[in-house]
Design the sequence.
């Protein structure tokens, strides 16, 4: 399994360097070569096994052939012996008949056929008899082969001299001993041959028995080796792949700290290094985004505070008004109590008004304080209508000073959205202040309309004014930073609003009204699940502040 | 002829000397004299020079192959096998016996082709008296393997014959000599006490016995059989005829001795035998044919080799109709000058191509060893090559057989001119026997034949002729 390791920070290019280093080293063959080698080795093993099988079969056949050859040599020598015996018997009867012509004819005929058989026997023995076994056999055969013709010559001389007695004696003594000698040769060859034939047959039988075992063992070995080789090769591929898979899943979960273990230096190792490099890049990007987000939040806060500073006068009026009312009611209350007959009823009523006035003041202060608060972005389920109401309350006095009336048209039963309430208030405040200021210099009293509605899978909020409208040919740039149409504007308001809305997954844009002024829209993705978890908050369908 | 007498005298003297020393040698040099000790030390030094070749016991894995000439002789083969078995028992070296062809010329051809082709087997060859000069190049020098005592124990003529350019190429184990075989029973029947002394006596006795036996119903009975086929055996027969007459030993003092009246007379006499006392077929007879007729009891006399006695006398029952007490041997009849007996015999030599020269030399030494030769003489009647063994051989067999052989050797021993003609010898012998054969079959007169042969031999050998010499002119026609 993959394990998480701490990444040592590496500068740009380690991947390239490592990969090139690997390419340079090239010790472990790459996967294609490894697979090819694996299959080639298995194929070679199978060929080797086949070769062993062929060899075994050939061995058995050779041994069988050998026993046949050995048999042939025995027969060939036997034929020589038969030739000599025939020679002796035929010539003896001719010598007894003292038939000179017939004797000469037969002697030569029989000699020639004997010589043919002897040559054949010698040839067969040369190929058959292992010379180490009995070196005398061939020499003896050679001698017998030479002896008979010389006996023929000697006997023909004797026959020519008409000495049949000497011929008969030669046939009886010398040719007979030649027959004896050849018969002992037959016996010896037969014995040698029997030994060899027995050996050959035994060897062939043993080879047959062995063949089965050898083939079985070879097949088993090939199978075992193939399995081990395949398993090893597969493992060297599947192991790193599994680690990469686990790493990819971890990245998908957002665990950018995950690093895969890199082993070897094949393509998968390259892939692992690339993966780790990508994870590292992701970590850096995550850090950068975090920093950016912080910077934006800081900027938004600063802008908020600035905006609030700008609103201080009207807000002070906002606060002073209920306090003034409270002072008035307190005076009235005292007056009711200082009567001889204190009118407790009236005093109570006045006191109640004081409480109401102070609560109103408190509410305003709480809202202001909230906007001044600086904290980490905090997401929660937010009712946008409530936010609209709060901002209307906060900015009502500012609007009044500018002769602008605020009007809200909120849809009922809007789902809650997961958002940062303060940032949402900031966006609304920016858009509303912009709208109020756009109408401030108009001679006619203006109206700022804030709408909310559900549209598809998101909420659509819009702020419409009847002011100076959008600058021509710059509609696309008004959300860019430092772009302003106002004499004392920072040019940051709309840019900050856009970044807040985008962080929330929404969009913000502006459209020119058919009449005077412009409408700013923004969307927020709603969250049904959260909506269901929270208690239903009733919101007024319309609120008019004047 | 002075050279012949000189040779006989030399044979005689060395024979006696060797007899004395070999009496000590037989019981394996039990009491060596100072000189013997020195010689033994010298031999040891020589052996040491040869490294471990002769001293280390051979491995029992070695199997030697021996090519023997007398393979058709069963008695000889049986005795030989006993000897080989004993050798294997003593040394652990096995020996296989391979037969050679029958005739001497065919045997020589076989040995030559094997040796000259560089055949690894056989290791040991039996080498005929007349072969050393022909085969010497392919035979091992045995001197480093044998002691001086072992060598000098043999007849010195045999050692000299087997030494070619200082190389001892074969160690003799058997001598063979031309003898007269006679039917003692028939001689007695026709009133003869002794075997014939002279050729004339033989002719007379043969004629008489032949006539008598034929009259007794033996219609194919003949007086005298010998080897008349044109072969080495005829060379030996004719050499005996001419030497006994005083016609010379074919080559003497580097001179051809053929074309002289003594040779003419000798050959003419032999040609007269054919059809009278010898069968007409005798001109096609080899040793075995003569032997066949002899053993069949169909002749009164036979000229043959002493080895023909093997299987007749010493080795028990005969295959033919003769029994041991029916015959005897004697020296060949004298001619005008002397008795002559061609000396044959064999030695054993080691092939230069043998893979086991050390073991092969051990076998050769074994087969020539005094005790082995003595046992062989008792078992199959083989005549030893060590003169000192003859008396023992006779006393053990209770016969005069070996004394007769020794006497024949000393009084009549004649060597063929194989040493003088060396590589030319086969051609010389062939021409000689063909010339004699031409006379025997009546194709040429003896005078023409001798004249032509002398020219031919002079051409073949490059030696001088005697024709036209003073001696030749003085000789009666």
Sequence:
């Amino acid at each position: 399994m993959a394990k998480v390791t701490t990444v040592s920070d590496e500068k740009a290019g380690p991947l390239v360097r490592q990969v090139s280093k690997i390419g340079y080293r090239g010790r472990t063959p790459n996967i294609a070569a490894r697979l090819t080698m694996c299959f080639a080795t298995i194929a070679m093993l199978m060929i080797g096994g086949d070769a062993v099988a062929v060899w075994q079969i050939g061995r058995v056949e050779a041994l069988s052939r050998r026993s046949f050859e050995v048999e042939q040599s025995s027969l060939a020598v036997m034929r020589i012996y038969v030739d000599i015996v025939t020679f002796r018997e035929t010539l003896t009867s001719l010598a007894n008949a003292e038939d000179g012509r017939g004797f000469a004819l037969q002697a030569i005929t029989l000699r020639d056929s004997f010589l043919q058989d002897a040559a054949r026997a010698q040839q067969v023995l040369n190929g058959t008899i292992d010379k180490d076994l009995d070196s005398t056999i061939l020499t003896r055969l050679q001698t017998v082969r030479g002896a008979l013709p010389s006996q023929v010559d000697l006997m023909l001389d004797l026959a020519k001299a008409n000495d049949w007695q000497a011929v008969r004696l030669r046939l009886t003594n010398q040719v007979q001993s030649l027959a004896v000698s050849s018969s002992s040769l037959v016996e010896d060859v037969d014995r040698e041959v029997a030994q060899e034939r027995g050996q050959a047959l035994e060897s062939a039988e043993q080879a047959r028995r062995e063949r089965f075992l050898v083939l079985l063992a070879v097949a088993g070995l090939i199978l075992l080796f193939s399995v081990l080789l395949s398993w090893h090769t597969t493992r060297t591929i599947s192991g790193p792949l599994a680690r990469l898979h686990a790493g990819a899943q971890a990245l998908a979960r957002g665990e950018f700290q995950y690093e895969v273990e890199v082993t070897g230096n094949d393509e998968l190792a390259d892939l692992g290094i690339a993966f780790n490099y990508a994870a590292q890049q992701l970590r850096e990007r995550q850090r950068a985004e975090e920093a950016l987000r912080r910077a934006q939040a800081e900027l938004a806060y600063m802008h908020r505070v600035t905006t609030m500073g700008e609103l201080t006068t009207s807000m002070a009026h906002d606060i002073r008004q209920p306090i003034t009312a409270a002072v008035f009611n307190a005076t009235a209350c005292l007056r009711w109590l200082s009567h001889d007959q204190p009118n407790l009823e009236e005093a109570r009523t006045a006191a109640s008004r004081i409480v109401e006035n102070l609560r109103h003041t408190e509410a305003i202060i709480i809202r202001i304080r909230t906007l001044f608060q600086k904290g980490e972005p905090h997401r929660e389920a937010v009712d946008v209508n409530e936010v609209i109401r709060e901002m209307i309350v906060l900015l009502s006095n500012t609007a009044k000073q500018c002769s602008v009336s605020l009007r809200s048209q909120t849809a009922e039963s809007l789902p809650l959205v997961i958002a940062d309430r303060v940032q949402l208030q900031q966006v609304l405040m920016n858009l509303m202040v912009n709208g109020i200021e756009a109408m401030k210099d108009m001679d006619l009293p203006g109206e700022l309309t804030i709408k909310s509605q559900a549209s598809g899978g998101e909420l659509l909020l819009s702020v419409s004014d009847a002011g100076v409208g959008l600058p021509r040919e710059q509609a696309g740039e008004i959300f860019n930073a430092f772009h302003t149409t106002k004499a004392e504007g920072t040019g940051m308001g709309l840019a900050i609003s856009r970044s807040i809305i985008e962080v929330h997954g929404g969009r913000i844009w502006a459209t020119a009204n058919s009449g005077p002024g412009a409408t700013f829209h923004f969307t927020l993705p709603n969250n049904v699940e959260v909506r269901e978890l929270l208690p239903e908050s009733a919101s007024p369908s319309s609120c008019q502040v004047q | 002829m002075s050279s012949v007498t000189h040779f006989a005298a030399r044979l005689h003297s060395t024979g006696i000397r060797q007899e004395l020393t070999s009496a000590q040698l037989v019981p394996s040099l039990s009491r060596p004299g100072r000189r013997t000790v020195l010689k033994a030390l010298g031999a040891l030094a020589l052996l040491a020079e040869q490294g471990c070749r002769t001293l280390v016991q051979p491995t029992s894995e070695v199997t030697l192959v021996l090519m023997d000439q007398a393979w058709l002789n069963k008695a000889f083969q049986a005795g030989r096998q006993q000897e080989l078995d004993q050798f294997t028992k003593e040394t652990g070296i096995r020996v296989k016996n391979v037969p050679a062809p029958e005739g001497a010329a065919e045997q020589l051809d076989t040995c030559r082709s094997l040796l000259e082709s560089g055949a690894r087997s056989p290791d040991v060859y039996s080498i005929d008296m007349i072969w050393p000069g022909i085969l010497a190049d392919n035979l091992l020098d045995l001197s480093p393997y044998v002691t001086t005592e072992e060598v000098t124990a043999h007849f010195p003529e045999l050692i000299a014959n087997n030494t070619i350019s200082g190389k001892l190429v074969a160690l003799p184990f058997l001598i063979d000599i031309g003898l007269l075989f006679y039917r003692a029973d028939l001689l007695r029947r026709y009133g003869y006490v002794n075997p014939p002394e002279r050729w004339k006596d033989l002719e007379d006795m043969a004629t008489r016995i032949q006539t008598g036996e034929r009259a007794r119903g033996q219609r194919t009975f003949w007086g005298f059989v010998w080897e008349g086929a044109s072969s080495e055996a005829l060379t030996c027969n004719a050499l005996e005829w001419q030497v006994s007459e005083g016609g010379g030993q074919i080559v003497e003092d580097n001179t051809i001795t053929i074309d002289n009246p003594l040779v003419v007379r000798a050959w003419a006499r032999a040609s007269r035998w054919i059809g009278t006392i010898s069968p007409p077929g005798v001109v096609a007879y080899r040793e075995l044919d003569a032997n066949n007729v002899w053993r069949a009891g169909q002749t009164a006399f036979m000229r043959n080799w002493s080895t023909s006695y093997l299987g007749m006398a010493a080795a028990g029952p005969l295959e033919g109709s003769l029994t041991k007490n029916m015959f005897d041997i004697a020296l060949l009849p004298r001619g005008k000058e002397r008795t002559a007996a061609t000396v044959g015999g064999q030695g054993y030599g080691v092939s230069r191509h043998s893979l086991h020269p050390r073991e092969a030399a051990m076998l050769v030494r074994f087969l020539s060893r005094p005790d082995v030769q003595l046992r062989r003489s008792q078992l199959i009647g083989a005549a030893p090559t060590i003169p000192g063994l003859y008396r023992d051989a006779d006393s053990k067999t209770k016969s005069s057989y070996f004394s007769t052989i020794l006497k024949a050797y000393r009084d009549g021993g004649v060597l063929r001119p194989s040493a003088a003609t060396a590589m030319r010898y086969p051609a010389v012998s062939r021409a000689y026997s063909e010339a004699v054969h031409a006379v025997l079959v009546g194709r040429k007169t003896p005078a023409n034949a001798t004249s032509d042969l002398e020219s031919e031999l002079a051409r073949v050998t490059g030696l001088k002729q005697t024709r036209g010499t003073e001696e030749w002119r003085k000789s009666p026609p």
Observations:
- The CA atoms of residues 317 and 323 of chain B lie 7 Å apart.
